[in-house]
Amino acid sequence: MQQPLAYRMRPKRIEDVVGQQQLVGPGKIISRMVKAKLLSSMILYGPPGTGKTSIASAIAGSTKYAFRKLNAATDSKKDLQIVAEEAKMSGTVILLLDEIHRLDKTKQDFLLPHLESGRIILIGATTENPYISINPAIRSRTQIFEVHPLDADDIKKAINRALTDSENGLGKLNINVTIPAMNFLIHSTNGDLRSALNGLELAVMSTTPDEKGIIKISLDVIEECLQKKALTQDKNGDAHYDVISAFQKSIRGSDVNAALHYMARLVEAGDLPSITRRLMVIAYEDVGLANPPACARTVTAVQAAEKLGFPEARIPLADAVIELCLSPKSNSGISAMDAALDEVKTGNYGDIPADLKDAHYKGASKLGHGNHYKYAHAYPNDWVKQQYLPDKIKSAEYYEPKQNGKFEQALGAQYKRLLHAQRD
Question: Which residues span the membrane (predicted)?
Answer without folding.
Answer: none
